[in-house]
Model the fold of this input.
Amino acid sequence: MTGLAVLIPVALGLGLFGLVAFFWALKRGQFEDLDGAAARILIDDEDEVP
Amino acid sequence: MSTAVRQSAEAAQVATVLVVPGMHCAGCMAKVERALAALDGVSGARVNLTARQVRVDHDPALGIPALVEALQGVGFASQPRGEELAPPPSAVKPLLPPLAVAGFACMNVMLLSVSIWSGADGATKELFHWLSAAIGVPAIAYAGMPFFRSAWGALKQRTTNMDVPISIGVTLATALSLYETMNQGEDAWFDGTLMLLLFLLAGRVLDAMMRDRARAGVDALLRQAAPGAMVVAKDGGLEWLASADLVPGMVMRLAAGERLAADGEVVSGASRFDQSLLTGESAPVHAAPGDPVLAGTLNLENPVDVRVTAAGAGTTLAEIARLMEASGQVRSAYVRIADRASRLYAPAVHSLAALTFAGWMLAGAGLHQSLVYAIAVLIITCPCALGLAVPVAQVVACSALMKRGVMVKDGAALERIADVDRALLDKTGTLTLGRPLPDPATIASLPDDAAAVALALASHSRHPLSRALVETLVARGVKAAALSQVEEEAGHGVSGLWQGRKVQLRRPEMANGIATTLDIAGQPAWLLPFADRLRPNANDALAQLHKLGIEVSILSGDNAAAVADVARETGLTGQGNASPRAKQEAIARLQGAGHKVLMAGDGLNDGPALSAANASIAPGSASDVGRQAADLVFLGDSLEAIPMAVRAARRTMRVVKQNFVMAIGYNLLAVPLAMAGYVTPLIAALAMSTSSLLVIGNSLRLAGAAK
Done:
């Protein structure tokens, strides 16, 4: 039973953390351009862009 | 991160959004961003590939033309985004937070439920039920909002839709589970309810994603054509104005190859105008000073000055827009297959639940027990797989079509186009390419050096005929000859020196129809006739449509002789001289006779017909109105897109129906169990996920649907 008392809050906390992270990403516009994000990884020398 | 820093450091920056429809890969993105970032005064450029746009942060001193020119330099046409054409709000975004919440809650509650199913008992079970309730009730209240809202809207209108049984099922199941939890009951159904919401929301998100994606594609095309005109100011200067800012009395300077942005009257210069988009008439119309010209027509030959006589709502265009508003009842009256299914389904489910309740009451099971069984029936019959049956199939089919260059505006369009049994095709621009191309036989008979000279001369001109000639010759692998002293004389032609001989590409002294003459000193002159040609594979495409059981005929605004020519070439029957209203009436007649009509057209004059037909398709080269009114837009030249779309739509409908059979079949198995009171939350969860997986797997077979 003591194991449960630790594990359940941990499980919920991790899940909640994921949910909050998702909302954060959504608000920051990370889902605005999914096609672009998929393609951007292929631009090999992006660092050259000032 | 760096953008934020940059913006705060240089507060005086302005942001401009340019639409770049030609971008489609990582290479394009890099080119566009680099070309813009290399400009002085540009502090940042970020491409949005989904919307085909680039956002540029730059110094206000750096004008938009400089940005457009920089993109032109790397080979991308672009256009500043008009304010009135700001992108419509995304349909996906409001659904993502409920989906995320449902997913989070579903996973955690399921974790707790698994422990209960594997034997947790007594105080542990009670604790887990309470935990499930603590997570489940707020999550259900939040994630269920899209359904509750839509169901409430439907009920207020005294109709019903798929969301009504969903809302009732979800609410009752939650209330029952809460009651059971408080009374240390046997089963709680939070897991099943959340899983149901999760699957249904996933279906909705897919449906919305498809609409967003197609709309982004079509919007990019529309914005590209955002019209405007170069206006001559009183002091003789030139200024570019958007068409919304044009007022009668202004004088527009129109170069060859440009489209008119407003109705007007020629003030100086004379040229020929291609009115095919507006009236379907294929022969160019001559206009001299004093002659009226219409918005949307293309200037073929010489630069002219045109005084605006009507702009905006006063133009011929506006009349067509009014006709279009009046049509479209057929489409708004169309009921989507999912809603049709739920109209049959909802009453059946609710009477089954009522029957179960009544049956157990009569059998003396007591109020509480009877209610539990009745709600178990509601949960097990809740249309989980049914909610996925339509959108998943349509999304897979649409992305397959999109890969082949056909954009579908929404799923309902796919359902409607599957039903058509009659097709009407516009001639100019739909059956034909809608632009003059050089006669292939003449081009093939040109000697190599003459072709090389023709290409070299034509490449120095922006005249539509020259550009068509360049396109054709380059496609044949011709290399341009080296010329010197090249000069273009507007309205007359291009001349130059080739190996010391005078060469000239000029307008012919006389010719039937459109043509150009190639002169090489010391050789007889070549007459190169131009004509609008049938689209490649047009006859193949028509044969395929015939095989699909669709009867095709031509419905054109062009004169009867031109229609007869094309009718002979394609073996179709045709009607010519049809005004926009006549086209609309022709469709209404066919619909009255019980036909489902597909309209394919591109012109403004086809707009009313496109929106009146049961389904419609337009080529990507179509007018704004045509593209906006059509359900499907196909890119590329081949007409085979039309039979391909019909075939894909029919396959999609077959898969959708199979999905329905699978989803309902599982209910047929599970309902007797539920009515008999044998269903536990474990069985409900298993049945729900397997039927959903089956439906998704079946839909994925459509990935190769566009063939």
